[in-house]
Amino acid sequence: MRLSPVLTGLRTYPFVRLTEARQRLAAAGVPVIDFGIGEPREETPAFIREALARSIEPRSRYPLAEGLPSLRAAIAGWAQRRFGVSLDPDAEVMPTLGSKEAVFHLAHVLDGDLVVVPQPAYPVYERGAVFAGKQVVELPLEAGAGFLPDLEAVSGEVWERTAILWLNYPNNPTAATAPLELYERAAALAREHDFVVASDEAYSELYFGAEPPVSALQVSDRTNMAVFNTLSKRSSMPGYRSGFVAGDRALVAALKRYRPNVGVAPLEFVQLAAVAAWGDEEHVAAVRETYRAKRDVLLPALEARGLRHAGGDATFFLWLEGAPDGFHERLLERGVILTPGSYFGAAGEGYLRLALVPTLDECRRAAETIAGAFVEPAP
Ligand SMILES: Cc1ncc(COP(=O)(O)O)c(C=O)c1O
Prior knowledge:
The chain is α/β, with parallel strands linked by helices.
């Protein structure tokens, strides 16, 4: 069979190695506490599950790609309350099947042969670009710059050929947040060179500082801006697959033309559960408190071993530097799995990413393991 060279040319997803490690540990009977993959494991709140169950109709029909008007209105209402922005639900909002597919597909909708992707980054920006036949330009995120990109380091010729600039704050994997000025500058460059700024805000609701993160929706002119968000992290709904794209109405109109071809219309009973989820903030505050408690248990244990969280006060990730030699391997032997930063590309070398997704009890046990793993046995 002649497979797509793009598919056969992909590097193995490095996270496969974590799955292999998990299997090895299970076979050896070692109990595993997995801080590797960033999949939320909290319970989906009961009122959301009930909204889904209530919404299942006796007859099933095809959902429309543009989503239910009630969900578009719920998303616009949330954006108004959360960011103080006014979105036209019919022209500036598009519900999506989670945000990953929408992130992947964006490069298929836009012209221009380059996609500018931060490094390190969530791998789907790059994967979507290469499947769409575009070339990736890497934009380094460095600790010294607060893990913000230097947009001025990209030449005008590159911007002229660019289809998309990806930004992702709060950031996976570094946990950094961005100021509104970054979005304003990106938006100005996007208008000047006619590319799209795609702002992936999947972690916007998981923050631990006093001020909630800003959104790219808050820029003074939303021309060429696209914001992606999701209920996966905010409402612990990764399996529901419910997200949205909002922004420039010309882009939303293009998505309305493109998406019926792909078969990614969100299921209607999930959309109705999503209406309930976007309408409530109480459960989101509770989700934040859960992750905060886990941070408070693990950070001191890690700091006592000389590690430091290098990133910001948001997301459910810790981006750790200063690990003693063999730290990751030693924890792995004891069933505690972290992700080496190198899995996110060369820019992640020297860091470890810890996703605060195990239960609080497991975090407490892991904190004890972190303490115990480095106590040398008495001679
Ligand atoms: C940065 C980032 N963006 C987007 C997603 C996709 O989330 P979902 O497809 O569940 O909405 C993830 C999931 O891990 C992520 O880390």
